[in-house]
Design a protein that fits this description.
- By secondary structure, the protein is of the alpha/beta class.
- It has two domains: 126 residues, no CATH class; 132 residues, Rossmann fold.
- It is 64% helix and 6% strand.
- The protein contains eleven helices and four strands.
- Strands 2-1-3-4 form a four-stranded parallel β-sheet.
- Helix 6 links the parallel strand 1 and strand 2.
- Helix 1 packs antiparallel against helix 2 and helix 2 packs across helix 5.
- The longest helix has 36 residues.
Length: 342
């Protein structure tokens, strides 16, 4: 049960880090590491009494990955049918195919192919490519697990503030009108707005979103119209109409909040798949805002989560590049060592 020790250590790190600030991606790393070490400890202990436990677990893991790949491919087809053929809508299809193809290719390059007919240098390079591909698959799986698991955990946190301001993050309009995805955010903001205790000031609603190239008007304007049409007082709605990204949503909304004299707690509303990234961005700009999520259509969630994951990986590109460069350097060193005439 030696692996229980790192599991406990990672669990303590997770609890301490989350208590300090729940809006940290490292919390997901600690949580997934604790779960993984705990599972390894259980499998190690079980294999002592049932030798085939590890084989059964490996078979179950491979089967689970295969099922996941098939589900992602199916979701990709659904996204194309319902949402169109944009790059974002194709992400789940690409991910499903990659899960089926890339790990198998990595194993074949390292263990499965007969490379005896090739020159030694070519065989070594192919094995090196397989090792790098295997590392890339593992790194992508580990980072996505940390992001995905903690996104689910964070999205279920209950906000503990009585907001003075509710910021609603924008998303694309359809023919200048609020689509169902954005409507769910606005409806949640309205419920929070109406829940203000009698005798207290209702929170200021800041619908935030600029005008995209394919939109006839700013998202903030359309969102404000929806809020007022569904019961919000015009004086309680202050649209932000210049932002072009989530970071700008948060920054420009904070400027409006300060200019309006609302210095109380801020609650940011988005969809559930977007909660963690919005919270990370809020923390990065020095905001204490809490973030909550509204429901999202089930078919839309896989592609949405993948887009969020890609965005976070891009935002942390320096750290990810360092990890990949370190692995590539070690593999290159091993290749050079293998080619030396010793």
């Amino acid at each position: 049960m030696i692996m229980l020790l790192p599991a406990v250590v990672f669990a303590v790190l997770y609890l301490a880090s989350r208590r300090r600030d729940a809006r940290r991606l490292r919390n997901g790393v600690f949580l997934v590491a604790a779960i993984a070490c705990g599972l390894v400890a259980l499998l190690t202990e079980a294999s002592r009494t049932t030798p085939f436990t590890v084989l059964l677990a490996a078979f179950g893991a491979v089967l689970l990955v295969g099922v996941l790949a098939v589900l992602l491919i199916g979701n990709g087809i659904t996204m194309i049918r319902l949402e169109g053929r944009s790059l974002g809508n194709l992400l789940s299809l690409f991910a499903g195919v990659a899960i089926l193809v890339l790990p198998v290719l990595a194993v074949l390059l390292v263990l499965g192919l007969d490379l005896s007919s090739l020159p030694s240098w070519a065989a070594i390079l192919l094995v090196a490519v397989g090792v790098l591909l295997g590392f890339a698959c593992f790194y992508a799986a580990a980072t996505f697990a940390a992001f995905g698991v903690y996104s689910l955990v964070y999205s279920r946190f209950r906000h503990t503030v009585t907001p003075d301001v509710v910021v609603i993050l924008g998303s694309g309009l359809i023919d200048g009108e609020v689509p169902p995805l954005l409507r769910s955010r606005l409806d949640l903001a309205l419920r929070i707005h109406r829940a203000a205790r009698p005798g207290t000031r209702r929170p200021l609603l800041i619908p935030s979103g600029g005008q995209g190239e394919d939109e006839p008007r700013p998202e903030g304007v359309a969102m404000a119209e929806y809020l007022i049409a569904n019961g919000a007082e015009p004086a309680d709605v202050l649209p932000e109409t210049e932002s072009t990204s989530t970071r700008e949503n948060l920054l420009r909304s904070r400027e409006l909040q300060e200019s309006s004299g609302r210095d109380g707690d801020t609650l940011v509303v988005t969809n559930n798949y977007h909660v963690l990234r919005a919270a990370l961005l809020a923390r990065s700009i020095g905001s204490d805002a809490q973030v909550i999520g509204s429901p999202t259509a089930a078919y839309y969630v896989p592609s949405a989560f993948l887009r969020e994951y890609v965005a976070i990986m891009v935002e942390h590109r320096a750290l990810n590049g360092l990890a990949i460069a370190g692995a590539a350097a070690l593999v290159a060193l091993a290749v050079v060592w293998s080619l030396l005439p010793i």
